[in-house]
Specification:
- There is one protein chain.
- This protein is α+β, with helices and mostly antiparallel strands.
- The chain folds into 2 domains: 97 residues, Beta Barrel (OB fold (Dihydrolipoamide Acetyltransferase, E2P)), CATH 2.40.50.140; 305 residues, 2-Layer Sandwich (BirA Bifunctional Protein, domain 2).
- The chain is 33% helix and 25% strand.
- The strands form 3 sheets. Strands 6-10-11-16-15-14-13-12 form an 8-stranded mixed beta sheet. Strands 1-2-3-5-4 form a 5-stranded mixed barrel.
- The longest helix is centred in the N-terminal third of the chain and has 23 residues.
- The structure holds adenosine-5'-triphosphate and magnesium ion.
- The site of adenosine-5'-triphosphate (ATP) has 16 residues, from strand 11, strand 15, strand 16 and helix 14.
Length: 433
């Protein structure tokens, strides 16, 4: 039989032919002395298959050998059956076992650590495959968003000679006889790229040696970044809002079934897809936290997770917070000319406790100020001479931001831990498989 003779389970359920050929894996099995019930799983869905002893004793004997995750091909008659898990049942007329699986190490009620140890097997679970399909939509939406707006895709090196987001989270690697660092961001190279291509974007692997154990940090994650010439802070925050809204809309358009499998609150996502998102200044965020929630956050401190969560909960939609204190921001985030204590930067905070999903800024054109700030961080400005040179040859105002792909997938799927938003997570303590 050729490929075209097989339907996916989803195709079978939607086309409803009288007879079907399916192939997949045993998701569940139940045996009585009259019937074998197999719930067959493939990449698209699950469907119940029944093998009757009285109708076909030979097939019945074969089917009795099937264990969880065994691979098989079945042919049979498709019938509507309200009692079956997805509303349809296949009365099996032929069955080919491809491999009888050994006892599957994952059974019900496993500890999270065992599931991470068996990640190579766990990704086929209904939950994780739903997450991976949503991740596929999120990634596709990001490409579509930027390409449809005239942005060029532009790549930066992963091996980089210096830090850009603070030495504490740098991964140092041996590079021939020398040392280099794994990319913490695409940004510095993107700032060179805009002089060639104007508006650019990229989605790539990003590495940060995060030492604290949180449910929102990975050591290797994917960041979707954009950078554009002639763009100021206010303009770039509007792009960020449009991008977030577009991602939510695309997930709703393509992944209702997966959202249901994950028991995600679809009404909330619909609300995010239709709403406008507010922009407030850091100082206004402090007023809300301190006056309305009786918190005690002094001006000058970065917002902690609980404070970010409160702000997003206050508005119940993603919120843009701008003008954080210059002193606690990266060297490339410029002081505002009206109040140099405030930087022309922003974060986007997602509601429901998911917090920061985007960080961005207008980019500094003040070479002396940047050099001073690097020195204060113990860095040698000499290492950035090519970056500062960009300010010498037709410097223009420009802005950009980075969106954490796994943070957004985590939020879209309603996941407790970011580790479930990527197929094979890497954290300080999770290196395998
Ligand atoms: P945080 O304060 O949460 O550590 P950050 O300020 O270090 O974030 P940025 O440098 O602004 O983050 O990076 C841009 C985006 O990349 C963040 O908004 C977030 O979505 C994502 N991100 C940053 N660090 C991580 C990480 N370790 N794991 C997953 N995503 C991350
Ligand atoms: Mg960080």
């Amino acid at each position: 039989m050729t490929e075209s003779n097989y339907l996916t389970i989803e195709e079978a359920i939607s086309k409803k032919p009288q007879t079907v050929n399916l192939r997949g894996w045993v998701y569940r099995e139940r045996k009585s002395n009259k019937f074998v019930f197999i719930v067959l799983r493939d990449e698209s869905d699950i469907i119940q298959c029944v093998i009757s002893k009285s109708k076909n004793p030979e097939l019945f004997e074969k089917a009795e050998k099937l264990t969880i995750e065994s691979s098989l091909k079945v042919s049979g008659e498709l019938k509507k059956d309200e009692r079956a898990p997805t509303g349809y049942e296949v009365a099996v007329t032929d069955l080919e076992i491809v491999q009888v699986a050994e006892p599957f190490p994952i059974t019900e009620h496993q500890s999270p650590e065992l599931l991470y140890d068996n990640r190579h097997l766990w990704i086929r679970s209904r939950k994780l495959s739903a997450v991976l399909k949503i991740r596929h939509t999120v990634v596709g939406a990001i490409h579509e968003f930027f390409r449809s707006r005239g942005y060029y895709e532009f790549d930066a090196p992963i091996f980089q000679p210096s830090q850009s987001e603070g030495g504490a989270t740098l991964f140092e690697v041996k590079y021939f006889e020398d040392k280099m660092y794994l990319s913490q961001t695409w940004q510095l190279y993107a700032e060179a790229g805009i002089f060639a291509l104007g508006k650019i974007y990229n989605m790539g692997p990003t590495f940060r040696a995060e030492r604290s154990k949180t449910s929102r940090h990975l050591a290797e994650f994917w960041m979707a970044e954009m950078e554009a010439a002639w763009m100021n802070l206010e303009e770039v925050t509007e792009i960020a809002k449009d991008e977030i809204r577009f991602i939510v809309q695309e997930v709703l358009k393509h992944n209702r079934k997966e959202l249901e499998i994950l028991e995600r609150d679809i009404k909330l996502l619909e609300h995010y897809a239709e709403s406008k998102y507010p922009t407030i200044k850091y100082s206004e965020a402090l007023d809300i936290l301190n006056n309305e929630y009786h918190m005690d956050v002094p001006w000058g401190k970065d917002l902690r997770t609980i404070e970010e969560a409160k702000i997003a909960e206050h508005f119940k939609v993603p919120v843009i917070v701008t003008h954080y204190p210059t002193e606690i921001m990266g060297f490339y985030k410029p002081p505002s000319s009206e109040n140099p204590k405030e930087a022309l930067c922003f974060d986007a905070l997602a509601p429901e406790g998911y917090c920061e999903i985007i960080g961005g800024s207008q980019r500094s054109l003040l070479v002396e100020d940047m050099k001073k700030r690097l020195e204060a961080d113990g860095e040698d400005p000499e290492n950035y001479s090519w970056y500062f040179a960009l300010r010498q040859y037709g410097s223009v105002p420009h802005s950009g931001y980075g969106l954490g792909v796994e943070r957004v997938v985590q939020w879209m799927c309603g996941l407790d831990n970011i580790k479930d938003a990527i197929p094979f997570p890497r954290t300080m303590i999770r290196k395998t498989p």
